[in-house]
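The following record pairs a protein chain with its ligand, nicotinamide-adenine-dinucleotide.
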Amino acid sequence: MENNLEEAIDLIVNSKYTIAFTGAGISVESGIPPFRGETGLWSKYDPNVLDLNNFHVNPIESWKVIKEIFYDFFGEAKPNPAHFALADMEKLGMLKAIITQNIDNLHYEAGSKEVYEFHGNSRMLVCPYCANKIKASDADLTDIPLCDKCHAVLKPDFIFFGEGIPEMAYKNSFEAADKADLFIVIGSTGEVYPAANIPQLAKQNGAKIIEINTESTLFTESITDIFLKGKASDTLNKLLIGIKQKI
Ligand code: NAD
């Protein structure tokens, strides 16, 4: 990785419009497992819990599991050095925005400002009928949360299977893929669509792709120019140190 690392640092320092694209892997070191894989959440829970139709038909059952995964468990997670390194890169003017597939709010908690949450955010609850939103921390999740305006069952403000991508995040992400000359893809399998289209489109538009992952992915052989094999925190910290030495 060492030679590649130098090449990656040069690329970042010399690029004009760098975008980070993050998946579940960046939050693994915060204690949040990915969905897929042997130790992934779907090896323990039924993914049906995030099926929109199932949620409407069985809200009580669904909320029991959603509370356990996304609030009791995710709720305790704190940003790790990888999230902080990206926030520092933005402050240094080396990163224009982060497109994240994650719903854990950890990029904002680390201090990043320009974050496009492609799949929404778990920290808010939304009414599917009147679009009223409240903070999840203000809701009593020991019971199913109800909208105080129209009394419908609230759902987390992240997308379930069968739901569309939030409009602004979609627009901002694809605009970023048009403008970018460099994408840093971190901890994403490339299996989740339409998110996986974003780095692919950037590549078609001429952007270089740096990829950070502990394993190779669908991106690695198809679009990646520089693959940095390793954990997100360690690798992003090395990149940050290198960037600071060169600017
Ligand atoms: P994913 O596409 O997000 O892939 C996870 C990737 O992370 C894998 O390629 C894995 O090799 C890599 N990885 C694991 N540990 C790593 C580390 N320490 N450093 C760098 N890379 C590491 O797959 P998924 O989990 O199936 O996700 C499906 C969708 O659900 C995605 O949109 C994902 O973002 C979302 N999700 C979000 C969260 C969260 O908000 N934290 C958690 C799980 C899933």
